[in-house]
Input
Amino acid sequence: MRFKPALLILALLTPVPAHAGAWMREEGETFLAVTSTLRHGASKGWEADIYLDHGLRPRLSVGFTAFTRSGREGHALAFLRFPLGTPGGTTRLSADLGLGAHFQRGDVRPMYRLGLAWGRAFDWGRGHGWLNVEGAYERRLGQPAPQLKLEATLGRSSGARLRPMFKLGAAHSRG
Output
């Protein structure tokens, strides 16, 4: 099946609220994001990323994330996210715990993740925006050191047809 460029552009420009991190999913609400990347040059290959988040209870979200790079390496992880403190208000804090597996060249091993997210809502022009900062400690058994990750996301959640979102991330592991 071939995707037409116009259909892909339309899907990318359709605004949807995409609060993540410190913002909990409402009970019964589900968010799904699928990303695919085709790389050329030195890092030639394809990448696929799936993220699913579901509000199971007022103070508990469950989710799943999976990533693969050209089918040679990747991971799959199920997680629980819960708020720390009062979940309402303009500033929010949450924690998540994840268990799963990672693979590299056919070798599959367990992994776990501990995460902490801080978020803040604010006025942005005629609408509202949000800032989210997430940190994570990922331990992939069989690898010599844990991965430390830090991401910051700035997004617009209302007021305009286009709702831009900017994300910066960094990861560190020994070697």
Summary: The mean pLDDT is 84. Helices lie at 5-13. Strands lie at 30-39, 45-57, 60-69, 73-83, 91-104, 107-124, 127-140, 147-156, 165-172. The CA atoms of residues 26 and 78 lie 18 Å apart.
